[in-house]
Amino acid sequence: MTAEGDFHKAEKELDKAEKSLKDAPEVLTAKVKAAREANVAAAQKALDDIVANQEPAQAKRALNRLIPKLKGTGLEEKAREALVGLKDD
Known about the structure:
Number of strands: 0
Shape: elongated
Largest sheet: none
C-alpha cells in the first residue's frame, strides 16, 4: 500500500496488526513499528518530492490528491500548509 502511495490505507492495516499483536512477542511489535516508520518516511518523501520538484499548478493538484492519503501519518497538516504556501505564490 505504501508503494502505491496510499499511506492512509497502510496506517489502517498497521493499526489492525498492532491490535492483534497486543500480547505478541516484542520482535513482532517491533516489526509493526518499523513498518509504520517506513510508511511515514515514504509519505514524507512523497510530500517533499511534490513540493520540491513540480511547478506550482502541478504541485497544487498533486497535494490535493495526496492529502487524503496522508491521514494517520501525522503529515496532513504539513501538506495543507504546503498547499496554502503554493496558493500564495
